[in-house]
Amino acid sequence: MENLGHLALLLAAAFTAGALNAVAGGGSFLTLPALVFTGVPPVIANATGTVALLPGYMAGAWGFKDDMQSPPGLSMKQVVALSLIGGSAGAALLLFTPDATFRKVVPWLLLAATAMFAFGPQLRAWAAGKNAAHATPSATKAAAGMLIVAIYGGYFNGGLGILLLALFGLLGQTSLNAMNGMKNLVSALLTAIAVAIYAVGGIVEWKLALVMMAAATLGGYLGARVARKIAPHVLRWGIVATGLVMAGLFFAKG
After folding, report:
1. Which residue ranges does UniProt annotate as crossing the membrane (predicted)?
2. Residues 78, 202, 153, 50, Cα dihedral to 10°
């Protein structure tokens, strides 16, 4: 019965995470804690949850394929290359992170990701203001920023979308559709290369990942369909509350 209860929890978490990612993001706030709660070691839980959410990122990238445009200072090839390099580095770093260390780091990462999500609009506005006040950053600074965010995404996926949107705004991108398109593309690339490295490193619970992947995909499809019926501020603060509760639980367990 306990195993069935665990399976039901993971399916519900993945379904809801897929719906959240389709609407506003924040799905990682559910998949990682749910996996850890059912007894999966933190590092493996992080990798497995990332695998489960991969189809959603790929679908999002495909949906914005006509709007994609690289940000000023970077070509599309550079964005792709930096995403793959940074994602690989972050994923490799996760492989060498002991479970005990990652367990201590997770609540801080969740808290930081929650803060980024909560203040996402202000963060993007700040980035746009910085861009308006100064010249477009140099290609070197643009590449460095892209690489740093990519490393973060390969290591820990939470809050990645907010960081990417802020980065693209800071680099001078103004079209929201173009920014969202690039955000989805980079997220898909980061997740794909990270999943490949996780698989080689043997830190993915594939049975759980595949079951959760199906639930997350269904959740993403239905979430997109009902998105217009839910007030954006309700979604945002619901996700923030979830992130704070999950971070608190990890702090308590640590």
Report:
1. 78-96, 108-127, 147-172, 184-203, 209-227, 234-252
2. 120
